[in-house]
Amino acid sequence: MPGMGVADSRGRGAGRCVVAGLATLVLTAVAGCGSSAGPPGSVRTPAGGSPYQAHVVRLPFAKPAGVFTDTNGKPFDLKKDTAGHPTLLYFGYTHCPDVCPLTMASLGAAVKKLPEQQREDFRVVFITTDPRRDTPKRLRAWLDAFGKDFIGLTGSWHTIARAAKRVHVAVVKPKPTKSGDYQVTHGAQVFGFPPAGNQTYMFSAETPVQDFKHDLPLFAKGVRP
User: Side-chain half-sphere of 102: how many Cα atoms within 13 Å?
Assistant: First the structure.
């Protein structure tokens, strides 16, 4: 089930990152999970004929809007600049010691298995939850280890938090101390938005790479659940 990554980053990034309980908003959304019907915004575990391993959001979230700054230092309109492309969206930070790099590594491995045309069409978007340290240059260097075409975005905390809230991902504004030690708390779900239509998919923090490899080709083709 969807988890919330709680990252405790200290100094140069050493620390711990654990998968904790659901964010309050997501917990509310998942109430009734697994039944044939559920409240708006709930998700269901793959069953009954859905070809996907991902959870399918019953009342789809619209792709968040907002203008960010990409790794080239240029404006990036999240909704406009990913329109017409299968898009995967993740909130995290580059100093995270485990959950974030593991998730991005799994996405990178899955995307590399796609046929060239599908691979070029995909948009993998990483929005930092640590804009103080995650400069465009830092984001680019970190993301290159997972995918040269992965999109890294930063911006004001207001822009980041508003986008996260739109998909019910919990984020907490980092509070730097004089020593430079501070926590970065963020939801660890990956959201998928198909190139057309209004369906939304949600991958939990524990999603194994084989599930991404299974789902991404279907997702790119616009296969309905």
Answer: 15
Compute CA distances 151 → 70, 139, 158, 160, 223, whole Å.
7, 9, 20, 15, 24
Instruction: State in words which class domain 4-46+55-221 has.
Output: alpha beta
Of residues 165, 199, 164, the one with CA closest to residue 86: 199
Q: Are 212 and 107 in contact (CB under 8 A)?
A: yes
CA 90 to chain CA centroid, nearest Å? 2
pLDDT digits (tens, 9 = 90+) for 107-117: 999 999 999 99
pLDDT, tens digit, for every residue of 172-208? 888 877 776 677 888 889 999 988 877 889 998 889 9
| Amino acid present at 49 | G
Please state the pTM of the whole predicted model.
0.79
Q: Locate tokens 């980041």: which residue?
A: 160
Domain ranges of the chain: 4-46+55-221
Edge to edge, the sheet with strand 55-57 lists: 43-44, 55-57, 201-203, 190-193, 87-92, 123-128, 151-153
Burial class for 10, CB neighbours closer than 10 Å (0-12, 13-18, 19+): middle
